Every structure is written in C-alpha cells, then in structure tokens.
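Journal club prep, notes for RB
We'll compare a predicted complex against what the paper describes. Inputs for the 8-OXO-2'-deoxyguanosine-5'-triphosphate case:
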Amino acid sequence: MKEIHVVGAVFWREADPEADPAGTGAGKGAGREARRGAQILAAQRGPGKNMAGYWEFPGGKVEPGETPREALAREVREELLAEVEVGEFVGRGVYDYSFGRVILDAYLCRLEGQPRLTEHAQVRWLGADELMDVEWAPADLPILEELRRRLSAG
Ligand SMILES: Nc1nc2c([nH]c(=O)n2[C@H]2C[C@H](O)[C@@H](COP(=O)(O)OP(=O)(O)OP(=O)(O)O)O2)c(=O)[nH]1
C-alpha cells in the first residue's frame, strides 16, 4: 500500500485570563464569551478536495527533500497565509484509506498573526469537551486522544 507522510499543525491557545475565571458573572470578564480552558484549532477541508468536509489539522504532504517541520511551515503559509513556530511533536496517527496509508505526524505550533483561509471551508477553536463536536479525518483520532488529555490537564 502506498504510504503518504503528512504533517499537521496543532495550534494551541491558552485560556483567556479575563474570561470570568471564577464563573461568578462579575468582574472584568463578565458578559464576555467565556474561554476558561485552552483550545486547539480545527480546520474543515474545503469542497472539491479529497476528503472534503472532514476536519483536520492544517498541513499536508511532506515533499521529497523537506524535513517535516519545513513542510509544515510551507503548508501553513500556503493555507493560512501566516507564519508559524513549530514546536514539540505531539503524536502520530496512521490510517489506511482507499487511496493509501496516511502517516500523520502532529506538532504543537504557534500561529503568528490571524489565519486567513485559502483552502479550508472554516476553522473552529475547540476546548477539551468540544473536540469530538466535529467529524475528524480518521487518521487524527489517536492524536485527539492525546490532546484531550493535555487540554484537560492545562
Ligand atoms: N493536512 C492534513 N491532512 C490530513 C489530516 N488527516 C488526514 O487523514 N489527512 C489526509 C488528507 C489528505 O489525503 C492527506 C493530506 O494531503 P493534503 O492536505 O496535501 O491533501 P491534498 O489533497 O490537498 O494534496 P494534493 O494532492 O492536492 O497536493 O492526508 C490532517 O489532520 N491534516
């Protein structure tokens, strides 16, 4: 079976410190959309693409001669028109699709600036309890399990 090496960016943002941390409804964060926990970014594949409609980590195939981190920086530039700081490896997911075996390696990343979508239908920031609210590409599931642990812990 054909093996396809893919890299994915896990954009992570910390809890909003002003979002009413005690849940009292009072103080500086009152009335604002509460974001009490850390979140990660999910992106929905655009129409007309292979696996359209599924949710994924921004990223794509590693091209010959590229390191995984170089590939990730290139893909994020193309897909989100933003620079990225690629951090630690978080996990691998492997899945046999009809078109080949995808080996997906995910890295924690920091986005520099606001994402502007060129290929994706939409993006959403998801907290620990919302991770499964969207339909992820099957290769992503083991990575989400690891992220659920990390988001719940922090
Ligand atoms: N970027 C990305 N792709 C994923 C994830 N999970 C997953 O199964 N995939 C699959 C979807 C695609 O078949 C492949 C990634 O390739 P890609 O994003 O470059 O796909 P593409 O069809 O745009 O590539 P191309 O053939 O047009 O160059 O891996 C994920 O989390 N992120």
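Talking point for the session: The mean pLDDT is 92.
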